[in-house]
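Case study 2.
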Amino acid sequence: MKNVITTEGLNLTFQTNDGPVHALSDVNLEVGQGDFVSFIGPSGCGKTTFLRVIADLEKPTGGSISVNGMTPEQARRERAYGYVFQAASLLPWRTIEKNVALPLEIMGLSSTEQKERTSRVLELVDLAGFGKKYPWQLSGGMQQRASIARALAFDADLLLMDEPFGALDEIVRDHLNEQLLKLWDRTNKTICFVTHSIPEAVYLSTRIVVMSPRPGRVTDVIESTLPKERPLEIRESKEFLEIAHRVREGLRAGHSYDE
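Prediction:
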């Protein structure tokens, strides 16, 4: 299995008026093709910053990173990833299908190709039949699924997701977690997923990366032993609770290490 993301000694320091802010420190990590990797840690630990480095939205100040064997800048230019933000960020004056098609328009694809791709990804996220609706006519969960469809429209092998379900209520979040696992199974994408939720991280992931408070370090990488088929009830199993306990202990160890 080839690595989609490889970092060695990755560091990032922001220069501010109040002095330097060390966001990431000596991050060494490999993400393999087809992995579902969740990043979890306290607020401000660098989870989102790390995702933004992968996407070439932030530049590291030390170490190295490759994305599909390229620099993040090359990967961005090659449109090697899709990015799902915390908020759906849909344009209210465009229909759902026009929102999903926006990056395809920018890429200069023909209207026929745009329609084909848009129809395909809307079906993938169970929004077939909602393409003519406007964002304000959809629930928060449906809007976020439309945002995922827009990221999938690139048909990139890598999907970066920054707390996409954090603002949703628990019932909707559970439903979207189930749908995301099915989507991952159908598409075999590599997914990097940022979350604050231990149950969400354990339920979704093949690997869980536990990060310390700033400066963000990787304190543990936990390989999931859960089967690929995961009904929600698996969260009550002994195996699930043991993995969740290890994540919790890793977060506590990171805090004590920081002190």
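The first strand starts at residue 3 and ends at 16.
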